[in-house]
Amino acid sequence: MLLISFFKTIFKKSKILFLGIIIYILGITYTGIAINQISPFYVWGMYATPTKSKDEYSFTQITYNNEIIDNFPVYMDFKKGFYNYPLYTYLSYEKFSNHESFNKNAHNKLGKYPNLYERIISNEKDWERYFIYYKDFLEVRLKNKANSILIEEIKINYQENGKSIKKGKRTLYEYSK
Amino acid sequence: MEKVLRKEKEHFTNTQSNSWNQFEKYSNLIVRVCTLWILFTLILRWIQSALPLNYYSLKLISVKNDYAYWLFRYTQIDRLILQNSTSATLFTLSLFVSIILLFLFPRLWLIRFNAFVHYCIFAILNNLYITHHMHYFMLIILFLLALLFPFRLFSYTWNAMRFYVCWLYASAFLWKVRFGAFLDWNTGVETVKNNMAKWVYQNPEHFLTDIIHFGIAHPFIFNFGHKLVLIAEGIFLIGFFTKKYDKLLIFSALLIFISTALFSDVFFIEQLFIIILLFLSPHYWEKLNNITNSIIPCNKSKGSSI
Asked: Among A49-53, A144-148, B59-63, B193-197, which is the least confidently predicted range?
């Protein structure tokens, strides 16, 4: 087997490299068993569970100074990430009653050490002020002062012919000068 | 007789050993091609305003359960870098310089270490502040990590990375088998419906939207395509046994990339190019080496000119 021959060669050639590779394998084995990623021991388990049919499919949309600013082609993935992911995190935060339950794992492990917890999680842990920060972020990023901002969660579904149909929307944040 | 057998065994072992060392001659070239790619992806991020100088105003973070992120937050490096536009710009500049230095002096360990540290900080900063565990950086980080070993071992670390990519896809396939996505027929069309909802809503007139509508109305297409893509991931298991089918693995990686880009809105271009390079045989590096040597002449006994 190619892999075994490789390990034999590495073992003979350099003990340091052999050890490095073994440590890395142990790392990815641990994170794989614990299903908890620790960079750089990544777990490649995305989309591993079945995706079930839903009544509605939701996403966010940002309208800035009356212009939709988050309609990106797929190759603008980097840009897209900065607009979308923080909003998705906010939506998941909404489902929790407080900051501690949102960061449950960190709170369980570091709750006894408030200073450490504070230092690691965030000083700006008040997610209620989320959109004040997000407005600053948009203004810096777009290099343009906001006259109006509308951030919505839009819900759609698909018809028999495959076409989408709007089911509803919810305003997450509205700002006007 | 015993002597002959021993000699044959030694010869066989040497041949095997040499086959793992066959990229040594092209170490400089490979590192520089990868470094150029890293620079290119950083420029792409620059164009898309996705560098620290563009997101210093982000305040809220998500540390997930990644202890590396916790450690990073404990050091407060992120606050130091993202406290204002000047510090964020300085770090971004320093990141570019570290990668350019790596291109110029790939054999200097301190330069390699410097590039590794810079890129790791950049990747963790990015993931912390977009509040998402993005995997796109992984192969570049792994490449820079591999460069921390002595440069004479580069060919072996390059082969180790090839095995890692086989693991990356094979494990993605095995996870899907273990947790049920592989055996769930409708996961294909449901993933498209979920991931492309924003696209079809915002681009109703686009031809890709028409294709997606057609595929949703005829779910067999997306469900069958999904299974094909999963099999393309599983094919990477072959890579642990032989290098004979490496071209097929390149094709599989391309198939996975194109299908997820079009129908799942995922674009892991940073990884893709390095994956392709990892499965190229020395024959292609020799060709590229000849081309670079013809452009930048050098002493042939030293190997590649760049």
From this structure: B59-63
